[in-house]
Design a protein that fits this description.
By secondary structure, the chain is α+β, with helices and mostly antiparallel strands. The chain has helices at about 10-25, 100-115, 135-150, and strands at about 5, 35-45, 50-60, 65-80, 90-95, 120-125, 160-170, 175-185, 190-205, 205-210. Strands 1-2-3-4-5 form a 5-stranded antiparallel β-sheet. Strands 6-7-8-9-10 form a 5-stranded antiparallel β-sheet. GO terms for molecular function: metalloendopeptidase inhibitor activity.
Length: about 210
């Protein structure tokens, strides 16, 4: 049987951060970034010889679409500590996210038309500003961080994307866009800032994939 948790309790918030990271990786892109608007309910179940499972009800929004929220149910299973595998996440969205087809196409064509590969650092800058032309690059970093957060979270961690330290576009012979990121993740429990190197491939039809 599952035990009710207050949404404000740390374990509930940590599990929600994993579900959100997974969803950012799955459904995010240069034109969409999901944020948690509200954690509505949380329950925890201890499954013998398997691990701890959290059942969550979330309200999510798109940072570029302030007026709309979508409901989401998520299950996050943290395997027992003896295994080093990532939490197992299942998510279901109720409601539609705004289409990003047009924005995706424009971003794709813009990057393909650059004569020199894009290179940037410190997004946002020390004042918290992101130049408009780098916003899609920043949102793709949310996707990258979502993957890292999902893969590396435990019940005792809570990661948050602090900054893109460096990003470099790499020309490819296929249709994908490739960006090599160094991102800084803030681990809220230990207060550590951890750099991660992440390579993201993106295509308007196929979405984003982290290749390493």
């Amino acid at each position: 049987r599952a035990m009710e948790l207050s949404p404000s309790q740390f374990p509930a918030g940590r599990a929600a951060a994993v579900a959100l990271g997974y969803l950012r990786y799955l459904r995010g892109g240069p034109g969409r970034a999901l944020e948690l608007r509200e954690l509505r309910s949380a329950r925890r179940q201890d499954i013998d010889d398997v691990g701890h499972k959290y059942y969550l009800e979330l309200e999510l929004g798109d940072v570029l679409d302030k007026d709309r929220t979508v409901k989401c149910t998520a299950e996050v299973l943290y395997p027992l500590e003896s295994t080093s595998s990532a939490p197992d996440v299942q998510v279901a969205l109720q409601g539609e996210l705004r289409s990003t087809e047009q924005a995706d196409k424009e971003f794709y064509n813009h990057i393909r038309s650059l004569e020199k590969e894009l290179v940037a650092e410190n997004i946002p800058d020390s004042h918290g500003n992101v130049p408009p032309e780098l916003e899609p690059i920043h949102l793709l970093a949310w996707v990258a961080s979502g993957y890292v957060i999902w893969q590396n979270s435990t019940e005792n961690t809570k990661f948050h994307l602090a900054q893109v330290k460096h990003v470099r576009q790499v020309k490819r012979s296929d249709e994908d866009l490739q960006f090599d990121y160094v991102i800084l993740l803030h681990e809220m429990v230990s207060q550590e800032l951890l750099p991660w190197q992440v390579t993201v491939l993106w295509h308007p039809q196929r979405g984003a994939r982290v290749s390493q």
